[in-house]
Design brief:
The complex is a heterodimer. Chain A is built from no helices and 11 strands. Chain A is mostly beta strands. Chain B is 0% helix and 56% strand. In chain B, the strands form 2 sheets. In chain B, strands 2, 4, 5, 6, 9, 10 and 11 form a 7-stranded mixed β-sheet that branches. In chain B, strands 1-3-8-7 form a 4-stranded antiparallel β-sheet, with no helix packed on it. Chains A and B meet through strand 5, strand 9 and strand 10 of A and strand 5 and strand 10 of B.
Chain lengths: 111, 113
């Protein structure tokens, strides 16, 4: 049930773009994206809901392909502050709440 | 961000001890969560409380016992833990459900000897 994230790690130069993917083998209700810096708590980035509604508050975009059970996070014109580990969490809505997280993608932006 | 606070920030305990972790949110949210983050495993959702009622426990061992006396406070009672329970325990809250933005506390770093 754990989603699979790719790539595992990526190194960028400041200003470059990156895409992080999250795939599930199960039908999804929503996909959550978080960023965590070393020694800090995760910070919410975005939630994508089945049916197309998207909730987020940062200058980062994402897509949710329900048929493919896949989400992608797009980081454009990366900044040094984007460095950290990105987690996706996938939610199925069956008899209750369940949120399963991927192992994370480590992103390093260099000057 | 001081919306969600957790105490203690660090805890070392023996396997026979009983301790409790505390979480408090000042955001007026109705849902609160406990997560476990281990070094070599993905983030794990342990418990979900919505309007003070537990709705999900994800098959967590009974040595972890949550308590939610009101929508602002969440506790995690620990007893007879194992060394593999050593991890960062994170509390989070959201307005009403998992599809609302979750705000995390700083976590409690737990070490079980």
């Amino acid at each position: 049930q754990q989603p699979v994230q790719s790539p595992q790690a990526v190194i960028l130069r400041e200003g470059e773009d990156a895409v992080i993917n999250c795939s599930s083998s199960k039908a999804l209700y929503s996909v959550h994206w978080y960023r965590q810096k070393h020694g800090e708590a995760p910070v919410f980035l975005m939630i994508l809901l089945k049916g197309g509604e998207q909730k987020g508050h940062e200058k980062i975009s994402a897509s949710f392909n329900e048929k493919k059970q896949q989400s992608s996070l797009y980081l454009t014109a990366s900044q040094l502050s984007y460095s950290g580990t990105y987690f996706c969490g996938t939610e199925k809505r069956n008899s209750g709440y369940a949120l399963n997280f991927g192992k994370g993608t480590s992103l390093l932006v260099t000057p | 961000e001081t919306g969600v606070t957790q105490t203690p920030r660090h805890l070392v305990m023996g396997m026979t001890n009983k301790k409790s972790l505390k979480c408090e949110q000042h955001l007026g949210h109705n849902a609160m969560y406990w997560y476990k983050q281990s070094a070599k495993k993905p983030l794990e959702l342990m418990f979900v409380y919505n309007f003070k009622e537990q709705t999900e426990n994800n098959s967590v061992p009974s040595r972890f016992s949550p308590e939610c006396p009101n929508s602002s406070h969440l506790f995690l009672h620990l007893h007879t833990l194992q060394p593999e329970d050593s991890a960062l325990y994170l509390c989070a809250s959201s307005q009403d459900s998992l599809t609302d933005t979750q705000y995390f506390g700083p976590g409690t770093r737990l070490t079980v000897l």
